[in-house]
Amino acid sequence: MQVTATIIAYFHTCLRKMYLHHHGIRMEHTSDVVYEGKLIGESTYEDRAAKNTQLELDGIKIDYYDAKTKTVHETKKSDKMEHAHEAQVLYYLYVLQRNGIEGASGIIEYPTLRQRKHIDFDPERDVPIIEGWLQEIEQILEQEQCPPVINKSICKSCSYYDYCYVAEEIEN
Amino acid sequence: MKKPYYLFNPGRLSRKDNTLKFTPVDEAGNEGQPRHLPIESVEELYVFGALDVNSAVLNFLGQESICVHFFNYYEHYTGSFMPRDYLLAGKVQIAQTRAYTEAKRRMPIARSLLDGAAANMLRVLRYYGYRERDLGLPIAAIEDLRQRLPDAKTSSELMGIEGNIRQNYYQAFDEIILDYDMGGRSKRPPKNEVNAMISYGNMLCYTQCLKQIYHTQLNPTISFLHEPGYRRYSLALDLAEIFKPVLVDRLVFSLLNKKIIQANDFRWELNKCLLKESGARNFAKYWDERMNETIQHRSLNKKVSYKHLIRLECYKLTKHVLNDGEYKPFKMWW
């Protein structure tokens, strides 16, 4: 199974969302938050795209890869889901390593916060962790039943919120 | 915000860079002042007048996932330009098909849809019942028929009960509507003003349901209450069943009773009554306002528009077919 970076990020935020997304039940197109994030990704660092350094490998798509310094750049709107962003970049570095690119590192950029965060990849430490994720992901995605709703505060701003929480509570 | 556009005037629709251009053309072939419709503002197009389009504009609309609904001279729904599905989900498709083919799974959904429709019809009647109109008999009759829903074993039995419910329901209309007589439901063609209004409103409701389904992973041709037919998006008919009383009928009452639409908004032909363009325009305007009105949703704890309620119904159906929550129909609670 090809695991995309979105799946990795959702694995670290909500298993239900990961499952639904994988099976084609997508809600991202309904969300202004997602749209805004996409715009920020497209409208910042515009000069980079001209250098044609988008990288596609094993089902992942790295927005900007600087081959000279072996750096993966990932742009995000806010650091609210920082651990999920870190996981996503670690996964990029893992895929690069699997394809023979050793010693790459990553930077998460938050242009609206004027912040950046460095991510280092340590094969001995990170490869077993990531392979553990992949095993768990595969097992969840193969289940017949969708994982339950998680009832967390992050749900409110999620594009899947309406889908997950719509109900007719009171019976007439 | 995106909104639907209603094109009543004849003309030509073309692509101008990244926007749509509508050029009115009169009967003599004279072009009028063109109007630009920014593509980001277009939710869908309703075409009532004669319209010229070319493949460039259709490709553009397809790329932007914008549906176009066509209506003939008699304001009758002709069909829709539905862009390629952009939300394919094999898992949902299979689950939806299974839910249809297995009778023991199909019947509960069909029953729920009809129960929701009946509950909403009763809500409408009770509201007017409180307003010193004598609606006791039809209300009692519909309540009685509703009790029989759990006993219906086949979908044709269900549709039989549905027919009886509707008959009682429409009989109450003559009590509710002040200046016009309906004398029962007549369609293809509608025989009088009330029927012309209902036919027109039902079409708007059907196309709205169709559009909402299009923006989900459900397949619009696989339905539960109505028999999936060819040439028809029958799942949109299923959903419309629930929403017609809430959205269409209440609007018809209010437009007629408040005299917003009047006798001179109709045209008569041989054996039928139709809305004139003035009436159709006005109806569409109020329909649109109604679609964007919001209510506080009970489980989502936020305001949602009427049209979003239809989308939410699609989500509930999707979850039901995936065994991710039992489908309960929308019932007006206010």
Word description of this protein:
The complex is a heterodimer of chains A (172) and B (334). With 172 residues, chain A is of the alpha+beta class. Chain A has a single domain (5-165), classed as Lambda Exonuclease, Chain A, CATH 3.90.320.10. Chain A contains 7 helices and 6 strands, in the order ααααββββαββαα. In chain A, the strands form 2 sheets. Chain A has a 4-stranded mixed sheet, with helices on one face. The radius of gyration of chain A is 17 Å and the shape is globular. The mean pLDDT of chain A is 84. By secondary structure, chain B is of the alpha/beta class. Chain B folds into 2 domains: 3-81, Ribosomal Protein L15, Chain: K, domain 2; 90-322, CRISPR-associated endonuclease Cas1, C-terminal domain (Four Helix Bundle (Hemerythrin (Met), subunit A)). Chain B is built from 10 helices and 12 strands. Chain B has helices at residues 55-63, 90-101, 103-129, 136-147, 155-171, 173-176, 193-214, 234-257, 277-292, 306-321; strands spanning 3-7, 11-16, 19-24, 35-38, 42-47, 51-52, 67-71, 77-81, 266-269, 272-275, 294-297, 302-305. In chain B, the strands form 4 sheets. In chain B, strands 1-5-7-8 form a 4-stranded mixed sheet, sandwiched between helices. A 4-stranded mixed sheet of chain B has the order 4-3-2-6. Chain B has a two-stranded antiparallel sheet with strand order 9-10. At the A-B interface, helix 7 of A face helix 2 and helix 10 of B. Chain B: Pfam families: Cas_Cas1. Chain B: It comes from Haliscomenobacter hydrossis (strain ATCC 27775 / DSM 1100 / LMG 10767 / O). Chain B: Keywords: Antiviral defense, DNA-binding, Endonuclease, Hydrolase, Magnesium, Manganese, Metal-binding, Nuclease.
